[in-house]
Amino acid sequence: MATKTEIMSNRRLLDGVAYLFCREMGIRRVKIQKPSAEEVNMLLMNGILSEDLKLVEKSFGYACYEYYRQLYDPDSFDHLLIAEAKNRRKMLDLCCGGGATVFSLLQNEPDIIYGIDSDAHQIGLLEALLHRSEAYNKVVTTIADAHHIPLANHSVDFVVCRVALQYLHVEQVLQEVFRVLSPRGRVFFLVHGSGYILDYLFARRAILNKKSLKFAIYKLFHLSSKAKEFNRAQANFLTAKDLKEKLAAAGFRDMKVHTHKEWMKMGVFPVYFAVTAEN
Asked: Does 134 or 144 have the greater pLDDT score?
């Protein structure tokens, strides 16, 4: 973990890992400077890259990508999140991963942020990075299931869940989020929309992979399969109408859907969209 935190604390190496992650995943919107030969060699010597110059752990690549994007190249949704979280004192980052959103929210100077994720390795990475930060005592990390949030009723006034809700039991998670929110507390969900599969197939060129193409077609038409190759969830998505209905059923009000043209396919299908609501 020490090696990873050293890399993430070095802007050029962080950018290098994020660049390589984007290259491997077919992400072309983000313009990151290509790592130098010396930087690639450092990543290779530290076991971050394999001999064929591929990332050994995609999860670490994703963590670096999120830190780069949220902290150094924020998009419209990132700015919206910070605006929504303004003046909120007790926050929960649900499915926080390696903690990029936690560090982003710290700029609002809250009293406390709870970072919860079921992945012990990602929580360990966040804790290691926090130990290098002056804000360590403002963040409480917990390894837990998002369906059973280990917080008391009405204990936070802001909840964010980025790009994770579509992989969970939505109704159960929303009930838990409603429970832990104080009256007039607010939520921010960023999710995959219907354009995500189009982006996955064409922008990321998954259409060239027969297995990925079959998987995405099943997801697109809401079909399911018990075949072993369809057990992955990277093409899951939600619709704004369905999510708003589920939020209303859980007790939320003042729901607003936020889209941005930079994340729209054919001007109609959102790759990502955000929903904000109030307890």
From this structure: 144
Alpha carbons 264 and 270: distance in angstroms, whole number: 4
The 3-state secondary structure of 89-150, one letter per residue: CEEEEECCCCCHHHHHHHHHCCCEEEEEECCHHHHHHHHHHHHCCCCHHHEEEEECCCCCCC
Q: What's the pLDDT tens digit per position in 83-105?
A: 999 999 999 999 999 999 999 99
**pLDDT digits 0-9 by tens, 214-252:** 555 555 554 433 443 433 445 578 999 999 999 999 999
**Contact present, 66 and 88 (Cβ < 8 Å):** no
Q: Are 186 and 276 in contact (CB under 8 A)?
A: yes
CA distance 88 to 159: 10
**What are the structure tokens assigned to 159, written together?**
């909840």
Residues 153, 147 contacting (CB under 8 angstroms): no
Q: What is the 3-state secondary structure (H, E, C) of the chain?
A: CHHHHHHHCCHHHHHHHHHHHHHHHCCCCCCCCCCCHHHHHHHHHCCCECCCCCECCHHHHHHHHHHHHHHHCCCHHHHHHHHHCCCCCEEEEECCCCCHHHHHHHHHCCCEEEEEECCHHHHHHHHHHHHCCCCHHHEEEEECCCCCCCCCCCCEEEEEEECCHHHCCHHHHHHHHHHHEEEEEEEEEEEECCHHHHHHHHHCCHHHCHHHHHHHHHHHCCCCCCCHHHCCCCCCCCCHHHHHHHHHHHCCEEEEEECCHHHEECCCEECEEEEEEEC
Nearest to 240, CA basis, from 262, 264, 259: 259
